[in-house]
Amino acid sequence: MGTTGREWQILTADSEEEDEDESSLEEAEATVDARKKWRNNAGFWLLGLCNNFAYVVMLSAAHDILSHQKVPSGNGTISTPLSTNPGNVSNTSRYDCNMISTGAVLLADILPTLLIKFSAPFYIHLLPYGLRVIICVLTALGSFLLVAFSAGPAQSFAGVVLASVSSGLGEITFLAYTSFFDSGVVSAWSSGTGGAGLLGALSYLGLTQAGMTPQHTLLVMNVIPVTMLASYLLLAPPPQAPRWGRSAHPPGPSYPHSSTHQPLLGGVASLQNQSQNHNISLQEKGQVVKSLLKYLLPLAVVYFAEYFINQGLFELLYFKQAPLTHPQQYRWYQMLYQAGVFLSRSSASCVRIPHIWVLAVLQCLNMVFFLAAVYFMFLPSVYLVFVLIVYEGLLGGASYVNTFHCVSAESQPEHREFAMGVACVADTLGISLSGALAILVHNYFCSLS
Fold first, then answer.
1. pLDDT at 381
2. How many Å apart are CA 285 and CA 54, to the nearest integer?
3. Which of 225, 209, 271, 218 shows the shortest CA–CA distance to 245?
4. Does position 313 have pLDDT exceeding 90, yes or no?
5. Does residue 98 sit within a domain?
6. Are the beta carbons of 57 and 218 closer than 8 angstroms?
7. Is 426 part of any domain?
8. How many CB atoms lie within 10 A of CB 205?
9. What 3-state class would DSSP assign to 317?
10. Residue 334 near residue 310 (C-beta atoms within 8 A)
11. How far apart are CA 79 and CA 345, in angstroms?
């Protein structure tokens, strides 16, 4: 029996309505997907910013911590130290030296991080993510308070150690957590950490230049740990499972590695439901580490070179004829370095550099140049140093973001969380070695008359 014209019109209309409904549904899903992607990226950017902020501020304040310059009279142009050993008291050295190298602050700021990163990949999954975040927040708050109210070097260094614990635990936690999301969040996290460097150094420089004491500046910084906790709590969608749940293993091949299925910092239990638990054996972990060495070793070299420059040579690059005092020059060095890092860490979507060893070679050449500049004192102007420091930061930031992109892209889904946690050990190891050498070099140069 044939279809009448009226029946055909009804069927056609129903088909068009179904097509329109499907089209509307697809558009709605695309809108939701875009919002989730934006939320994920924004969340990881903020977490990267807050996680590295205390660490950066402690390095920017290193010269002030060591010379106890809590009251910079005349807008920082004349220091009023709270210790009896402000800088080069004996005046027998041709360099304006503190009694202790800023490399000592670097070691206090990095050794706890190194310890955490070396050990954490093997047990960190047993700790709930929420508990880790609370520890990060409390230690960051404690670091600012201890250094701000410090009565001596020991208390100051204790505050720096707390900043290191916060940064190290946070980095290994959140980098591992990126394995549950679209790989784009690695760029967001990296950009956020770069932003921490820039905003941390710039805020410390700006507030002290404006006349605020280092003590009050550090107290203002307590807003950052609170922001970290707010980012963790507020940016997550309403979870169907407690956001304080334990760590989970990343989705296997049958589960798309997409932000449309995995909300930010919440729903950990849902991740566990989406994937089967995959216990990585010790042998597998060894194989993963071995496969990553082609990226990790160059990254360690890059960070060794640049932090040797930053904490071993910056304080010795003092231009007496410049309109800036020694503490001001040091703060500007730190800020400009972090500006270069921020720019390169935020450029991963435009430029990819798979050959990390090239960056390592360039940074080592940078280190040799700065070492010669300190020894022979041939640089004519502080402004030339400013330009070179930005270039140094560009190399460091590029090595960081490209290393983690390569690690994320080449790791198996079931290994990605472990691989990202292990990869963040390389830069910390390089920084630690540079801090130890920086102290020796500082003592050598400061003994020269």
1. 93
2. 31
3. 271
4. yes
5. yes
6. yes
7. yes
8. 22
9. coil
10. yes
11. 35
Name the residue range of residue 219's domain: 40-244+282-446
How many domains does one find in the chain? 1
Tokens 């203002």, located at residue: 220
pLDDT number for residue 122: 73
pLDDT given at position 245? 57
Stated pTM of the model: 0.69
Considering the chain, what percentage of its residues have pLDDT values greater than 70?
75
* pLDDT mean over 30-35: 71
- Could you tell me how far CA 412 lies from the centroid of its own chain? 24
For the chain, first and last CA: distance in Å?
110
Q: Which residues contact 443 (CB under 8 A, 6 or more apart)?
A: 101
Residue 51 and residue 171 in contact, taking contact as beta carbons nearer than 8 Å: yes
> Does the pLDDT of residue 280 top 80, yes or no?
no
Alpha carbons 149 and 244: distance in angstroms, whole number:
33
Residue 268 in this model has a pLDDT that exceeds 80: no
CATH number of 198's domain:
1.20.1250.20
Range in 123-137, 208-222, 228-242, 322-336 with the lowest mean pLDDT = 228-242
pLDDT at 86: 44
Structure tokens at 93: 């050295």
422 is a domain residue: yes
CA distances from 65 to 217, 395, 398 (A): 13, 28, 30
Residue identified by tokens 């329109």 is 20
Please list the alpha-helical segments (H only) found in 275-415. 282-308, 326-345, 356-376, 382-410
* Residue 61 · residue 416 · CB < 8 Å: no
